[in-house]
Amino acid sequence: MMIVFYILSAIVFLLIILVLIAPKQYDIKRHIVINKPKNEVFQYLKFIKNQDEWSPWKKKDPNMKQTFLGEDGQVGFISKWQGNKDVGMGEQEILSISENEYIKTKLRFLKPWKSESDAYLTIESLTSGITTVTWGFSGKNPIPFNIFMLFFNIDKTVGKDFEEGLTSLKQILEK
Hints:
The protein is α+β, with helices and mostly antiparallel strands. It has a single domain (2-173), classed as Alpha-D-Glucose-1,6-Bisphosphate, Chain A, domain 4. Helix content is 33%, strand content 37%. It has a seven-stranded antiparallel beta sheet with strand order 1-7-6-5-4-3-2. A hairpin with an 8-residue loop joins β2 and β3 (78-82). The longest helix has 20 residues, at 2-21. The termini are far apart. The mean pLDDT is 91. It comes from Mariniflexile jejuense. The chain crosses the membrane at residues 6-22.
């Protein structure tokens, strides 16, 4: 009986240690340089529906069901999706826009698991006609699910998707 107690105590102790050392937040971002003026890049990016042309997730499920609420390119616009196992189900809402600077959105994932992230696209002019776009998102890893992040590299996985999407965006805008 004491052996079982010691084993259970060790498991609980290990879980507590893992919860304490596991990352409680994430912030993933990638950037790309686009040979277009800042205002042209911004005018394209502020419309969420344009993401269908360059988003890596749209490519993973071109038949996903989408619905839209509000006016695209305006605060309050919501894009909802329901797709295959690769894209799941969720919605993206425009929270704030600063003309020619950034677009901030809230991502609400509903399936395969519930979570929320703050997403953003920032636009910076390097020189006349050359623009840097940074695409990122951040959020919290709730306890005890943050333990999973010790074994899963979200930056590498999502970062790869961001890189693919930004490469597609660059190709589209530089045509």
